[in-house]
Amino acid sequence: MAAAGAADAQARFGHSVKGLLTEKVTSCGTDVIALTKQVLKGSRSAELLGQAARNMVMQEDAILHSEDSLRKMAIITTHLQYQQEAIQKK
Asked: Exposure pattern of 27-46 as b/e (b: 16+ CB <10 Å)?
């Protein structure tokens, strides 16, 4: 009878360990899924930051070009004013 009791205790212990192991495996699987989602989200964030940086560089080029155009227009305006004054003096 003692042998049957010991075997029964071992069976219960085995089931308990299997249950705990199953819970741990499930928990680890859930953690891996969460980690994968976070890595993918981080990857997407890096893509968005890269795109934003490229857009900013393009905007900076456009701003510099506009600034150059405005400077040229100011010079042209000054020359036209000089020409207008010269015509009015004649």
From this structure: eeeeeeeeeeeeeeeeeeee
Can you read off the two tokens belonging to residue 31? 């953690």
| pTM confidence score | 0.46
pLDDT of residue 69: 94
CA-CA-CA-CA torsion sign (38, 40, 44, 49) = positive
CA distance to 5, 27, 29, 30, 37, per residue, from 34 (Å): 43, 11, 9, 6, 5
Sign of CA pseudo-dihedral 54, 58, 63, 64: positive
Q: Which contiguous run of DSSP H or E holds residue 12?
A: helix 2-89
Token digits for 77?
């305006």
% of the chain beyond a pLDDT of 90: 31
Judged against a pLDDT cut of 90, whether residue 82 lies above it is answered with yes
